[in-house]
Amino acid sequence: MADSSIQSILREHRLFWPSESFAQAAHIGSRAQYEQLAAQAREDPEGFWAEQATRELEWFTPWNQVLDWQPPSARWFVGAKLNITHNCLDRHLQTWRRNKAALIWEGELGDTRTLTYSQLHWEVCQFANALRALGVEEGDRVGIYLPLIPEAAIAMLACARLGAIHTVVFGGFSAEALRERLIHCQVKLVVTADGGWRKDAIVPLKAQVDQALVGVETVKNVLVVQRTATPITMEPGRDHWWHDLRQGMSAVCPPVDLDSEHPLFVLYTSGSTGKPKGVVHTTGGYNLYTHLTTKWIFDLRDTDVYWCTADVGWVTGHSYVVYGPLSNGATILMYEGAPRTSRPGCTWELIEKYQVSVFYTAPTAIRAALRQGEHLPRACDLSSLRLLGTVGEPINPEAWIWFYRVVGGERCPIVDTWWQTETGGIMVSALPGAVPLKPGSATLPFPGIQADVVNHKGEGVPPNSGGYLVVRYPWPGMARTLYGDEERFRRTYWEHIPGQLYFSGDGARRDEEGYFWVMGRVDDVINVAGHRLGTMEIEAALASHPVVAEAAVVGRPDPVKGEEIVAFVILEQGSSYHEGLHQALKQHVVQEIGAIARPGEIHFTEALPKTRSGKILRRLLRSVAAGEEVTGDTSTLEDRAALDQLRETN
Ligand code: WTA
Questions:
Q1: Considering just the CA atoms, what is the radius of gyration of the chain in Å?
Q2: How far are the Cα atoms of 384, 470, 505, 521 from residue 461, in angstroms, in the given order?
Q3: Would you say the CB of residue 204 lies under 6 angstroms from ligand 1?
Q4: Half-sphere exposure of 10 toward its Cβ, with a 13 Å CA cutoff?
Q5: In a 10 Å sphere around its CB, with 0-12 CB exposed, 13-18 middle and 19+ buried, how is residue 189 labelled?
Q6: How far is residue 538's CA from residue 590's CA, in Å, rounded to a whole number?
Q7: CA distance 334 to 329
Q8: Model pLDDT for residues 470-490, shown as the tens digit of each residue
Q9: Which atom of ligand 1 is nearest to the CA of 520?
Q10: Is the CB of 420 within 6 Å of ligand 1?
Q11: 418 CB under 6 A from ligand 1?
């Protein structure tokens, strides 16, 4: 059945319209309303954003200028003062939402906690006071390395309350990767836990922090949340248990008045060089942009139970687990664990148990569920769902249809949301009550977003031609800079294409109806299971192993993960291949970066295809990795024999 419906979609180019009742109840309920908002924002962007900022958020002091745009430097709501935690917490306490569930959490062991807005506010204030007692001040950087437990959100909000800048590092990153980020960001304090549960095992977070901090001078204190009761060492004077410190800690902590452009967080993401980039987001514009996109794209209502499965270590966890939903006063479900073999149906059981109505996840998770079979979701009552969403990578029509049919019961629109760490929030997505869907397309830009597909000169390309996905005008949620590296910010995003356009690094096409079809990265970044990884980072990790002389890494299409990591390795003179080397090198990458970067395949070779100027021809390696015929221009290849040899070894 799935097959025949997919076939017909491809043939008919069928559009999936929201039901009349969905559209009628939606915040944006018709195509005409979408067009009108998009037109208003195009004609008067500053007027549009100012109107939304006034209507949707509370400001301590109003702005005197909406946008100061000196490419590539943007300042939004110049002169205004606010605190994002006031919008996420305090203002709801003045309403009936005071005792509404803000956060419903379930741990992997089945333990649960629910925090109302009033309780969350209490926890955040206490945590903020604890940070302050440990010397954290406005502008200081705080590292957060936690499992997905309520304290992850609490710690982020506590930083924001004080004007401290958080940098969350995903708990799956290794000690080495953590160390690199803490040093780069000059972090003063780290918040961690003794351990966290993931796939029936304990991740030893505190032990990793200990390892990461050896010789790191800037970190003066470590605040430890008890989660797994794993034995750990506590360094006197540096390490503090959160449950001890909070004893008697006041829960009165007024939010600090912050400039609209005060940095809110730094989040490291992969780029096309060996070093991760610290993307900087600021307060006012980010608050508005995540708030409005959450409200309109997830069509949030007060009665919704909203579940975004992302970890707070990724930007999706920042914008659509914490800030966007809380600013809207939503009820958020947070689950500590990950889908795993011992409990394969847990996603669907949680949806039934908590009556989830809006469910936002990654295509890789959908493809994994599709492989496990329909019987698991069918065994649960999923009738509470009314809206589905995907993020992180293109979704193939087969997975889309399965999600629509089996999970959504053919009644829930799917918002396929395209965006990036740098954009702060969703840029291209359907507004589900207004825009008919096409499986595999992220559909249309959010009102106020002037997205386009252009050639290398910055000229728009005709419908259905491939090009670079760019944004022509600033938006409130955009990254302001890369931490400590303005020059790289300029070079990476603003100089590739003439005309002061923001270059996303993605290729895309637009069809004759203006729908965007994102084709994936055009740079040396790959997307594995929805996680963005720089091939050069993995190459650097491999090359740091004593037997490796040189390494090249590419992505190969994978039916579940989207892409799989394939490495080509040249050994040092005098080192020879032995049985355990595959494993040893994979393990080395895990140690250097984390399990998410473990190569699926390693090929040992004596030469790599390079241009005369020494640049590795990744296009050729990609073909070799995918087992395809190598076609196209090979004229720049320095040594044809290298290519022939590679083909033989595969
Ligand atoms: C990819 C995640 C196709 C894209 C929010 C982008 C997508 C990168 C989609 C950003 C989508 C994200 N369709 N591709 N709906 N969403 N991507 O920074 O290549 O972790 O550049 O942010 O993911 O990854 P990041």
A1: 24
A2: 42, 12, 16, 18
A3: no
A4: 8
A5: buried
A6: 10
A7: 15
A8: 999 999 999 999 999 999 999
A9: 19
A10: yes
A11: yes
Q: Assess whether the previous peptide bond of 254 is cis (omega < 30° from 0).
A: no
C-alpha–C-alpha distance, residues 403 and 367, integer Å = 9
Largest Cα–Cα separation, the chain: 73
Residue whose token pair is 């430097």: 73
Q: Best mutation site among 518, 521, 526, 533 for ligand 1, i.e. most ligand atoms within 8 A of its Cβ? A: 518
Protein residue whose Cα sits closest to atom 24 of ligand 1: 420
Distances (CA, A) of 178 to 44, 190, 281, 587, 591: 43, 11, 20, 17, 11
Residue 627 corresponds to which amino acid?
G
Task: Check if 319 has its Cβ closer than 6 Å to any atom of ligand 1.
Answer: no
357 CB under 6 A from ligand 1?
A: no
126 lines ligand 1 (CB under 6 A): no
- What are 236-277's pLDDT values in tens digits? 999 999 999 999 999 999 999 999 999 999 999 987 777 889
DSSP string, 433-457: TTS-B-TT--BSBPTT--EEEE-TT
| CA separation for the pair 256, 603 (Å, rounded) | 54
Best mutation site among 532, 537, 563 for ligand 1 pocket (most ligand atoms within 8 Å of CB): 532
Cα–Cα dist 540/593, whole Å:
10
Mean predicted confidence (pLDDT) in 143-166: 98
* Domains detected in the chain: 20-83+266-488+496-517 (3.40.50.12780), 85-256 (3.40.50.12780), 525-649 (3.30.300.30)
Task: List the beta bridge partners of residue 616.
Answer: 610
Q: How far is the CA of 148 from the centre of ligand 1 (A)?
A: 21
The alpha carbon of 537 and the centre of ligand 1 are apart by a number of angstroms equal to 18
The amino acid that residue 401 corresponds to is: I
Contact between 234 and 252 under an 8 Å Cβ cutoff? The reply is no
Classify residue 365 as exposed, middle or buried by CB count within 10 Å of its CB (0-12, 13-18, 19+): buried
- Residue in 420, 426, 446 to alter for ligand 1 test, most ligand atoms within 8 A of Cβ: 420
Say if residues 642 and 621 touch (Cβ distance below 8 Å): no
φ, ψ at 631 (rounded to 5°): -120, 180
pLDDT in tens, 527-584: 998 888 888 889 889 988 999 988 999 999 999 999 999 999 999 888 888 889 999 9
